[in-house]
Structure formats: C-alpha cells, structure tokens
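haha ok so turns out i had the wrong file open the whole time. this is the CORRECT one, sorry everyone. sequence first:
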Amino acid sequence: MAQFSPSVRLGLLGGGQLGRMLLQAAIDFDLRLAVLDPDPDAPCAAIAPEFKRGSFRDFQTVYEFGRDLDVLTIEIESVNLEALKRLRDAGVRVYPQPEIVEIIQDKRLQKQFFRDHQLPTADFVLTENKADVRQNTAFLPAFHKLGKGGYDGRGVQRIASEDDFDKAFDEPGVLEKAVDFEKELAVIVARSESGQVACFPTIEMVFHPEANLVEYLFAPAEISPEVDQQAQQIAIRTAEAFGIVGLLAVELFLTKTRGDGPGTILINEVAPRPHNSGHHTLRANDVSQYEQHLRAILGWPLGDTTACLPAAMVNLLGEPGYEGVARYEGMETLLAMPGVHPFLYGKKLTKPFRKMGHVTVIDKTMDSLKEKVKRVQASIKVVS
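then structure:
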C-alpha cells in the first residue's frame, strides 16, 4: 500500500466533465492534477492547477506531458497507447494499464475478451465491411457497432431486417444480437494496486429515445437481491479478468423473464474510468466514484461505497433547436428544491443533446424520488 503524499505528481489525459469532477475530488486531498486536452475551453481548463493544450492522441505530446509524472490516468479512451506504454516502461505508473485501454478501445476486441473469459454477453459476429453484415440475415435483429470510434450512441445502427443492411458500416465492426431486455443496469467497480475490490450499488439507467445516451438513472436499481448479487459478481469478475487498477464501469442488460425463470445478466460494454452512471455518487454515497478512482490508482485503501439515500441523476442536455452560448432556464426552481444538487460542466456553448451538466436528486423513498425527478425534468432547460 502506497504512503499518502499530496506531493505525488499526477496527470490526466482529457479535460472534459469527468476530468473536472476528478479535479474537484483531487483538491480535497491537496493533489495538484495536471491536465492535457486539445480544447482551450475544456471544462478543466479554468480550474486545473496545470493545464496543457495538446492532443492526447499524439505520441510526442503525451510522452512529453507524462514523462515527469508519478502517476498518469485518463478520462477518455481515445488516447495514444504507444506513448502510455513507453511512459509505463520508463517508470510512470499508468492506470488503467495501456493494454486494457487497447482492448476496450475496440469493441471487437472487447467482445472477444468477454467470450474468451467466459463473461456473459450477447452473441455476436465480427464483420470487416458492409458485405459481411449482409451475410448474416439469420442473425437479425441485431446492432451493428463500429469497432473503433463510436461514443455516446454514435457508431451504432440497428439492423432489424434485410431492409436495414444499407445502414451497416463499411468498416470493421461487430454485429451483436439484439437483446430482449427488461432493464439496463450498471455497476461501477474499483480495483486497487493491491487487488482490493469494491463495488458501488447497482444502478438502473434510462436512455433518451432520440439521442441514445443516458437521460436519467436511479440508484439503487429496483431489482431482486439475487439479480443485484449477480450483477455485482459479474462486475467483480470482469475487473479481475482485466486486472485493472482504477475504476471499471460495467454496463449490463437484465433480460426479460421467460416462463417461471428470472432474467439473466449480460454485459453490454465497459469503460475503464469514471462514468456517467456514477455521477450521483458525488452526493449520494459515502465516497464518490471520483475519490474512489484516485484511491485506487494511488494505492490508498478503497473507500466505503455505501449509499446514504436513494438517489437519481438527471443529465442536463442541450435542448433541440438551440445552439450557441448556454443559458440555464429554471435553475432558480431547482435551487429551491431540497435534495436537488445541480452540477454544471463549464461548457460555454450548447447544442442539441450536448451534455452540459447533471442534477443529482436524493430523497428518503424511491416513490418520492421519482416524483422529484419528474419536477426536475419539467423545470430546467439548457437553451441559448
């Protein structure tokens, strides 16, 4: 176990909203986090003790940024892996490990990893081009996903029948069998350098029907204790199969029941970093996902993940039809509600469905929590 030291030289690739919240957690420990991002107006830029403008995809930029650090981490997967490997070989502690990021960057490798390690996931076929997809009529309905480059619902097409084949991507991808699911769940699990593992409570996600990203979530998920235990164990097995140091967000499907049998848990995909499905932990849990990530990568004891109260998280998305300097209509209404905590990401410009912030909502019961979420959604709009 590493000795606590605020003087550790800690770096972050990516200066978006996840990095901003990681920075805020680092300040509590007097850590001075250096950030690399190509956008001079990135959410981290105004508050990072050290902010360097540059591409986290460029080998030389990443190597120069990281070579004087003790520990380097990420808030986005699309980083230069060769630079991370070279820095690791030079003695910098790089977490999550570059080989893990390499697998997760490519959905083809990710799905094959699940299969190779007997981790439950939907059936799939690897495809090289659009013609390959056309050879799999009997596999439909399915989703065609780009191997690399997809993010927040982009790079995914539903192929329900032969009529949809033109939607397929003409580059390497994975054709994944459509899952008849009852709920979409997620578990954030942390694993430390020493192998200590801790899970946050299982949460339930609801996706925006048009934008295909999380609209809101509830924690804990309304599932049976048996399903909850199954979800937690799958998350732990996945983290241990990777051998990851840091956070791993494991997105899951709970399939619909068949006859008298319960639904089963399948892994959808994973992310090796803080995640949208853990934002609520900033107010709802004894330790947030951001503090837990720092504890894991710095070799400190993992924190208590106990939930203090039932919670929800509502994403603040840019309203359709608005693009320009952001304004937040209804913020005064939110601020007057007890148990409602807005977090704004510092993005100057809004556009339709852009993630501009989130609202954590807490309450004593799940019924009152759901009613409060409806009031939050009706009260706030991000316009220009």
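The radius of gyration is 21 Å.
again sry for the mixup
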